[in-house]
Amino acid sequence: MSARLEAVLGDITGETVDAIVNAANPQLAAGAGVCGAIFAAAGHELVEACAALGGAPTGEALATPGFDLPARWIVHAVGPVWFGGDQGEPELLASAYRRSLDVAVEVGATSVAFPAISTGIYGYPLEPATRIAVATCRTAPPEIDLVRFVCFDAETHGAYERELTAT
Ligand code: ADP
Hints:
Blueprint: E1 4-9, E2 19-24, H1 33-42, H2 44-53, E3 61-65, E4 73-78, H3 89-106, E5 111-114, H4 126-138, E6 146-151, H5 154-166
Parallel strand pairs: 1-6, 2-4, 2-5, 5-6
Antiparallel strand pairs: 3-4
Helix pairs in contact: 3-4, 4-5
Bound molecules: adenosine-5'-diphosphate.
C-alpha cells in the first residue's frame, strides 16, 4: 500500500511522527530557518551528534536521534541551493526527498514529516519544489505509512494542498 500524504500548517519541531526531516546544510551545522528551529528545540546533544557525522553532500540524508524533540529521529537532508534550475537542482531536490525516505526506513520509522526543503533561504521556487516533493513521496518505500508536509506559512500550505489534490 502507498503512504498517506497530507499537508498541515505548523511548526515541524512539535510533530509527533517517528522522524522529522531537517532542511540541513552540508556542514550539518545549526543555521537559520527550520534548521535553526530544530537545533534549538532538540538541545545541545544534536550539535555533537551532527559534528560526529561530519557533513553530507547535497542530495544526501543522514539520521540522528531527536533528543529533546517529540520525534524519535531527525533525518538531516541537504537540499540544493537554487542557481536558476540548470545546475541539477530538480534531481538533487528529488534525491534529498528520496534519500530521506530511505534513511527513515533504515532507522525503522513509518511516519515522516517534511519541511518544504530548499524553498526558504536556498531559494528554490515553491511550485516546482512542491511538485518534486509530492511526486517523490508518492513513490515512498512500502514501509512508510504516512508522509506529512509541515508548512510554515499559508502560501506553502496552499501550494501543497493544490498539488496533493491535482492528480
Ligand atoms: P532551506 O535553506 O532549505 O531553503 P529554510 O529553513 O530556509 O531551508 O526554509 C525551508 C522551509 O521551511 C520554508 O518554507 C520555511 O518557511 C520553513 N520553515 C521555517 N521554520 C520552520 C519550522 N519551524 N517548521 C516548519 N517549517 C519551517
